[in-house]
Design brief:
Layout lengths: L16 H7 L8 E8 L1 H4 L13 H12 L4 E6 L7 H6 L1 H4 L7 E5 L1 H4 L3 H19 L2 E5 L15 H16 L2 E3 L1 H8 L9 E3 L2 E2 L1 H12 L11
Helix pairs in contact: 3-10, 7-8
Length: about 230
């Protein structure tokens, strides 16, 4: 199969091209790459009844996949996420507690907890974080929410569906990355029950975290896209 042109490829195929080049550099010319995950309880690694399993949460499962694929790379996974936090709270501490880690790639995942404050307030907070990260020079990847089994994931009118649409719009507006976890789980739900991916109603389990990590890794894979 002939290589596709970059215009025909998904955004994930080329958004991190410059970083993928750096990840291949061997010692002593390589440098430390920081992946920073900002959000709520899911990237933090909460499972159920307050128990955490951080190593099996998607930030660390992403690290494992990146390290295996780029064996010469020095990569840090840093979580600035806090259980129970929503985007307004995350935006308030963004410069002092997130950008301080000099992220090469920043992942934002807040929508599960943004439902109480609504889409309009969430938009303001997400845009603030996106703008500050881009001004800093960071690559940004937004995540739509993982499921809450108390909502009908098939409905386009559910709160999580509305917040997912906001996040997609922001990714398109600012030309940043998007991991559409909600759409992926929605498609998955057409063929199998999501309970097998959940540790409780609003927290994914190890299998669910791997599902998200696999989607994130699409941004780090070698691409067949070519520039004309």
């Amino acid at each position: 199969m002939a290589n596709e042109t970059i215009e025909d490829c998904p955004h994930s195929a080329h958004y991190l091209d410059s970083l993928k080049t750096e990840l291949k550099v061997k010692w002593p010319n390589n440098r430390t790459i920081n992946l920073v995950f900002h959000g709520h309880s899911v990237p933090t690694g909460y499972t159920t009844r307050g128990v955490l399993d951080r190593i099996n949460a998607y930030p660390y499962r992403t690290l494992k996949k990146v390290n295996d694929f780029y064996p010469y790379s020095v990569v840090n996974t840093i979580t600035t996420s806090i259980g129970g936090e929503q985007a307004e709270q995350g935006a308030k501490r963004f410069k002092e507690e997130v950008l301080i880690y000099k992220p090469d790639v920043l992942f934002i995942d807040y929508a599960l907890n943004d439902r109480k404050m609504g889409v309009e307030r969430a938009k303001v907070a997400w845009e603030q974080m996106i703008k500050e990260a881009l001004e800093y020079g960071t690559k940004v990847i937004l995540l739509t929410p993982t499921p809450d089994t108390r909502e009908d994931i098939a409905s386009n009118e559910s709160p999580l569906a509305k917040h997912s649409e906001l996040i997609r719009d922001l990714a398109n507006k600012y030309k940043v990355g998007l991991v559409d976890s909600y759409a992926l789980f929605k498609k998955l739900a057409e063929t199998e029950p999501l309970e097998g991916y959940m540790s409780q109603s609003n927290h994914i389990n190890m299998k669910g975290h791997q599902f998200v990590a696999d989607a994130i890794f699409e941004y780090f894979k070698t691409s067949n896209c070519t520039k004309n």
